[in-house]
Here is the input.
Amino acid sequence: MGGPLGVEVSVCYALPPVRGKLTHGAPLAPLVWFKSGGAAEWLFEPADVKDLSDFLYALDPSVPVMGLGLGSNMIVRDGGVPGVVVRLGKAFATVEQVDATTLQCGGGASGILVSSKARDAGIAGVEFLRSIPGTVGGFVRMNGGAYGRETSDVLVESEVVLRSGERRVLSRDDLGYTYRHSALPPGAIVVSATFRGEEGDPQAIQAEMDRIAAAREESQPLRSKTGGSTFKNPEGHKAWALVDAAGCRGLRRGDAQVSEKHCNFLLNLGSATSADIEALGEEVRAKVKAQSGVELEWEIQRVGVAE
Here is the structure.
């Protein structure tokens, strides 16, 4: 049967009771950086970890579940996302110092919050998180990184709630990290992570954060509706250079455009649909393959169904 705002619902199911907030047909475009795409069949914002665990345990196993952070590296397709989208709110946006080099961070904490708390505590080594527009949950799942560092360099362990509702603590090695990828199973939600850096001087840490922020400001279209880095860097190559060499800088499809400032970024110039943005990305991949023989892999998550 037809679902809210284009979401196709293939099965009927009852939802378990929750203490948090459960919204039917929640528009996702306002929650993602591209500002495009359809609705979540259900959007769940749990009150705490137990609320999430109990909900997933009782939820029909056939219902798909997806986590949503800041929506910075994601295309939500125009037909929306069937099942349940889980978004961790303020209860999960916490950062606490454990010892001289260790932080315990909620899955909903932003990279800016984590790096700022680390600076205040004199913990160096996590400054790179300042430059990644996402949350701890996304960093852990995608092995997020920038400026020569990535999550696997600083992660000790992470607590996740599996699709079954089981709570489990996974070490860095359990997550099977590779470049921008982990072995975390679909439907699992990262609720916290422990990061370990090294003792450092808060002023020096702030200086490094300022350097990273300035470099990002200079090279990336930060004030645009974008999804961040679009394609993974292939072995031995920079994705942006391959895109540029294929003549794709500034390429447009409707209101979707390859950024002229950094051509591994796609932009929504105004009213681009998610279909426009994804099709532009596929056109870029085809042009790069034809020009260089290299097949670019998407780094941006593409979720949901076409309209």
Remarks:
- The chain is about 25% helix and 25% strand.
